[in-house]
Predict the structure.
Amino acid sequence: MYTYSFMQWIAFFAIYCFFGWVFESIYVSIEYRKLTNRGFLYGPAIPIYGFGSVTILFFTAPFKDNVLLTFISGMLAATLLEYITGYLMEKIFGVRYWDYTYEPLNLNGYICLGCSLMWGMFSVLVTNYIHNPVDRFVKSFDSITLWLFDICFILFFSIDLYASAKAAFDLKKLFADYVENNEFVRKMQKRLDVIIAFANDDYENWQNMVAEKQKEFESEIDKIKNGIKEFTDRFYNKKEKTNRRIMNVMKRNPGITSKNHNYEIEKLKKYYTKKEK
């Protein structure tokens, strides 16, 4: 069993968050052929790797001398963590920051067999190879250095988490605006269809009331135009600070998906890609 202090566990969490960011950024940069600062946060840290590594170390500790049991216990613990994290993030922010829907043997798109096996292999690597030098590095800190390291990490991590969550909520609100304005346009279109149907069914009366109906028709058209203009203005004329936050979320997570807003996500990607050029 590992015998670490609480402050040492925080240091391990910080280090593995950074390792995860390095791995993901390299992988995504190669995949999309451009340098990408990967992750939910702005800074060089991906919390799922920090939590995953700490979870793996905790649950594999009784079996660290047995490769098979280390693989199985680490795989199960990390997979459960990934499922819970993916589910909660989608519920809170309305989008998926990873999606395995099209991977074989997936569960609700949050986890899949391939990634679970990767977690198992990662568990063996961490327990038998990666953690040994990390262990020595953290243990080389005296108590004051360790406290300073942890306090600095917690401070910057907290600020980053707040800013990143704010950007994610901005994105969620933007999707809500889409839904609200699309519903408004749909209602206006329905009212317009009724007016047109009325005109077709009662042409003679329409001719007699042409002046009055023309005004009503133009009024409805104006409402639709104003609704579309309001939606466009709210989307494209956001405050620059909010725009930058949303842009950074999209850039750091090029594979972001949503059950209800994939059309809007693709539109945002095109908009921000064009804006960068």
Remarks:
- Residues 143-201 form the longest helix (59 residues).
- The longest strand covers residues 106-107.
- The beta strands are 106-107, 111-112.
- Residues 170-255+262-276 form one domain.
